[in-house]
Structure formats: C-alpha cells, structure tokens
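Sequence only, no structure available. Ideas?
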Amino acid sequence: MKLVFIRHGKTKGNIQSRYIGSTDEELCQEGINRLEGNLYKNIYPVADIGFASPMKRCIQTAEIIYPYLSKSLYIIDKFKEINFGRFEGKNYLELNGDTRYQEWIDSGGTIGFPDGEDREVFSKRCTAGFQEALIICHRLIKDKLLYENSTASFIVHGGTILSIMEAYAGGGKGSYFNYQCSNGHGYICNIDICYPENTGNGFIFNSFKKF
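Reply:
I predicted one. Tokens follow.
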C-alpha cells in the first residue's frame, strides 16, 4: 500500500508560532488558500481510504483535499496532537524567561511538558492509532472492499507524523525531529500491509519521500 501523511493546513496559532496542541483551532484563511493552491498544483495523491485526527483543523483539511472521502473518513482519536500543558497557546517570546521552558529547550525537547503530556507517551499513543488504521485496512482488504495496492491518506498533526516516522521510517529512537514538515505537506510511504500485527517495532516502510 501507499500511505500519505499530511499535516493539517495552517491555523492562526501556527502563523503566530504558538504551541497549539490540545487547542481545537480551525484553519485560518491563509491555511485554506495554501491548501487550495496545493490542490491546484496536484501534489496530493488520490486516496482510496482516509484517516484523520478528530480535531477541527484536520477534519477541515481532509474536507478540502479529499471531499469525496469526507463522509467516510475513519476518525482515530489517538491521532490528536500532544497537549503542551503550560506552554499551550503561547509562543517562544511569551515563554522567554520561564525556567520550565528553558529546561525543556535544554533537554532537546525530550522531557514532558509541564502540566501536559510526556512525549514518549504521546508517541506510543500515535503509533497505537497507526496500528489501528493498518488493521482496518487489512480487514477491508480481506473482505475485498479495498485493493492491496490502495492508497491511504492520514490527515493529522505535525507531532503525529513525527511519532509515526520515528517509529517506522528506519531512523530509530531519537530521530523524531528529523521528520518535520510544513503545514499542508508531509510524506508518501510504501508499506507491506500483509501483517499489521507485526508492526509493533522496527522498520516497516519500504520507502518514503517528503513532499
């Protein structure tokens, strides 16, 4: 199968460089315009099945890119963005001087967010959601409701993509930030869908490219 991971379009918080995780922001007009521009450039592969985070910015993005899938999207709650805790809704200028923020910066972004979510817990949540999606695909293929060489699109958050790519793209633990992508962009990956129950650990993407 081909898997397409797309980070949602821009929100007001994204434009202002704010930590937007658990805040359920909608797309801003600039974000909508850029997605429509990407559609005009034909950068998104046609998808046979779609998965999305339940947050507004992802649902709206899916409706713009894949209107024909919008009513049949599989919503995976585990794909929600990380909760940034006391950093939520703020940008680096507003957090300047906060000792807890400096501790997080000094850790390379590896420690948990104060009053928020631990990144390792978040990553495990996202990969568990990914496995759920693979099992759905596997079941549909067995029932002959989906072809083996189908394309599945995942309209999710930046952190969700980082977590899945770190786990399955072959970079190994510590490669989380290597897979950053801008709003409306992401990765196209190829995968052997035959045995989703064996995707708990290790390399499963046969190949991938950023777009």
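The chain has seven helices and six strands.
Hope that gets you unstuck.
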